[in-house]
Structures are given as structure tokens and as C-alpha cells.
Amino acid sequence: MNNRTISHIIEPQLVIEGAGVLLRRSFGPHASNKFDPFLLFDHFAFNNPLEGPLRGFPTHPHRGIETVTYMLEGTVRHRDSLGNMGTIAEGDVQWMTSGRGILHEEMPRRSENGNIYGFQLWVNLPAAQKMNQPRYQEVGTGDIPVIEKNGVTTRLVAGEVDGVTGPVGEITAAPLYMDVKLDPGSRFSFPIPSGHTVLAYVFEGAGEFSNEVVESVSMVVFADNGEQVEVKSDAAGRGVRFMLIAGAPFKEPIVPYGPFVMNTREEIEETIRELRNGTFIKP
Ligand code: CO
């Protein structure tokens, strides 16, 4: 099997979102839709308790997308217009399908040692499902399968590894989303269908991705030229940890506008009209 090579590496940029949350963004929604079906990848990792209380993301709408929140340290409290509320705790995942619309708030809280560490991925919905009912899949840390083999530890959120299926299902993009940790001296290879978008967010250590050394923190974008992804820990013996993200593109035109991603300008205009006249949330 041929290994996919690296197309390019993105250096995440600092951005301020919500009510003043500083985060590292690898990419955000754009009409060019280069990472189809993925729209955004953000990394919360600002651990200075002197920053004081976190202001979080006060009530905001979403339509036409899915947001996937994975916390490694600290928690996120959430509450929405449909009466759902809860806490995404350490090691948990929340896969939120906004469909036609929700209004929610997301409030990060520090862990006992003052840290916050987590990721939010946005996945597109195909045109035919953008106006479906909203849905949540909440997975506690204990329900995420951990696969340990030859120095590689994988926490599987969505997709399939060695006959084990991740807990998040029925997602149209058939995504693969997993947290992969390689001990020094280990190697990982994983088959990915050709045509699928493949990304790796390297957040600890350094590794060889298709024989190129990649240091954390970096977003690796793979070319569509092979049947598998191969990663090795680097020669300096540091080990590496990354989120592996892959999925089938929808190949539909998109029109992003803030927290909405639709297919046409008219659909965005209609969304804004509904927000203004109070018909955005459908019973
Ligand atoms: Co949100």
C-alpha cells in the first residue's frame, strides 16, 4: 500500500472568539471548502490561571453543521434552546448536530490545576440534511474504546479500528476521529479510502508523517495520493500524539456566515431573517 504524502502543514493562528476566548485555529469555514467535509478546527489550550475567569461562548446559534467537542483537561458546561444541558468533562466527547438550528452557550471551566485543553471540530452537513432536527451524541470518557497495540494507544471517537467501532455513529461524512499516541520507537499505519480528506493535528511531541518530521503544534494536511497514512515516532525518541481526522467530502458549494454554513446566499439570508423575527428555533 502506498502512503499518503503531506500536501502542506498549517501553523495554527491565535484568534479570539466568543466573549474573549483566546484559541488556536487551524482553519475556519470558507467558501473554498478546502477541507470538505471539515469546516473548522480549534484548540483551547490557554492555561494561565492569572487570566482570571473564562468568559466562554455566551448564547449563539448554529445551523447546517455539526460541532464536535473533545476535552482532555477542564470541562465545558453547555445549555441550549431545546432544554438540553450538561457538562463535557475530561475525556468526554459531545457530537452536536445542529441541523436546522439551536441556540446554545458553551462555558469552559479550568481543571483543578488551572488547565483547559480541548478541541472543537466542525463537520459539514449535506444539503439534504441541513434542516433536519438537531441531535446530540454525548459520550463519557469510559465509553470511548481505547486500543493499545505495539506502543500505539488509540482513543476511538468515530470510525473503525481493528473491528472496534467508535461510539459516535450515523454521521453522513462517515468520519474517522481519533486520538492517537505513539510511544518512542513505535509506528502506526491506517488505511483511508482514496478521495477522503485526511488531516492530523499534532499536539504533543514530534513524529515522522510519511517520513517528514512534524513538530507539535501543527495541522498536517495529507495529499490524496495513497491508500494509507503512516506515522512513526521521530529518531530523537520523543513520541507523538495527534488527532487523526478523515472523512468523505460532500462536494457541494457552501456559503458560511459566522456560525451558519448553508449552500446558498438565499439560505443564509433566510436564516438571518428567522433569527430576527423569532422563528429560527422550530418546535
Ligand atoms: Co457553539
Please state the CA-atom Rg, rounded to the nearest Å: 19 Å
Low-confidence stretches: none
CATH superfamily: Jelly Rolls
Q: In sequence order, what are the helices and strands, one letter per element?
A: EEEEEEEEEEEEEEEEEEEEEEEEEH
The overall average pLDDT, rounded, is 93
Question: How is the CATH topology named?
Answer: Jelly Rolls
List the ions, cofactors and other small molecules found in this model.
Answer: cobalt (II) ion
Portion in beta strands: over 45%
In the CATH hierarchy, the architecture is: Sandwich
Quaternary form? single chain
Shape: globular
Secondary-structure class: mainly beta
The DSSP helix count reads 1
According to CATH, what is the class?
Mainly Beta
Major sheet characteristics: 10 strands, antiparallel
Number of strands: 25
- Helicity level: under 10%
N→C terminal distance: 50 Å
Structural domain tally = 1
